[in-house]
What does this fold into?
Amino acid sequence: MINKVRADALEMLSVVPDGASIAIGGFGLTGVPVMLCHALCELDRRDLHIVSNNAGIDPTGVGRLVGEGRIRKFTGSFPSNKEFFTSFHSGSVELELVPQGTLAERMRAAGAGIPAFYTPTSAGTDLATGSYPARYDGEGQVTAWLSPKDVRVFGGVACVLETALATDFAFVKSYKADRLGNLAFRLASRNFNVPAAMAGRVTFCESQSIVEVGEIDPDGVHLPGIFVQHVIESQLGKFDAPTRGASL
Amino acid sequence: MSEPDALGWSREELATRAALDVPDGAYVNVGIGIPMLIASHIPEDREVWFHTENGVLGLGGVPEADEVDLDMQNAGKEYAKIVVGAAAFDSALSFAIVRGGHLDIAVLGGMQVASMGDLANWSVPGRTPGVGGAMDLVTGSKQVWVLMEHTDRAGTPKLMRHCTLPITGTRCVTRVYTTLGVFQPAGSHFECLDLAPGVDIETVRALTDAEVTLARDSRE
It folds into this structure.
């Protein structure tokens, strides 16, 4: 019998090694798997490649991974968090800045068996021509730039080649989950959770509630359980850093 | 919020002016800043649907404290309401809506717009890195409107012959609403479609890097 429900977050995430790549769902404060991010901090994992739209907007969730210096590389569209800015400009984090729609589609493509695709988004801009910094040294000098993208014209429109973005793991947050991993979300908290779950080779879901099989109507399943390997009930505040709030 | 400009429209008046041009039945994405003010100034006899990039079509206004739903924010990461009939979806589908040409109008803020229609609004070297959905919005939407002050705080023009800041997209802007008037990028110049009360075309020309012509039906 399939039962993807787990009881212990630390035990569940112990298979995630240092250096892993992880796609994380969420946009702003909605749909962020905060407990899973914090559990990873408790496990003291480092050197991570995080793929997420934002880098957290306060010291929780992805923001805590940033603040504790656990990230080697960040792929995302809007890492506006102050600690991230400092880490990037001091050379401790590499940044792959990606337009938001391209980020979502690259994650979706990874799970959909599409190795690459062309899109008009970013054609002719610094993000496509190799003119945007990817890494700084400690003195504020750029030491690496984003790679220039292949360009092809379709119907008179210049398009850039984007590759699928597969990750070792994914962390997502749902409203409801069952033991099969079927997920349902609410309103704007669905966001990157669906593409992230598709990008991850192993997907962990933190769910607001765990329900009986059949309780989520088949037409109300937003992500089928075949994309999800592990499910755990969210516990608000579990693994929060003891200093939380002090630095706000 | 900054002081209203002494000259021309305030930010609120600018949003009100742009809202007048949003047609009944339009699907519209509004960006962070002045563009977001448009939503509350749509004339009451029009049905306009607002898309938010984080996955909702049918974005509503700002909730009262007791109406806040923790699962509902807008693209500016502020808690927001939805309207009856709203639809929720994931980010990949949200940007299929954006990129696929389904939105009638994307309304964005701007740092510079060039007369060819190029927009710069995402990056200032040395500042916080972040592009968000801006590059997707300008490539996909049927119309791209930019709402911004006519000049920056130092009085430097923002309507340019060529953008000097990193561009968000080329030849994408179809209309610019500034504190001084309404303009259409026309290749070698901007065509002025309307002027704010008390603003004349010579004032506009003095504060604009590119050439500006006056459309026949605009008032002066």
User: Anything to note?
Assistant: Chain A has six helices and 14 strands.
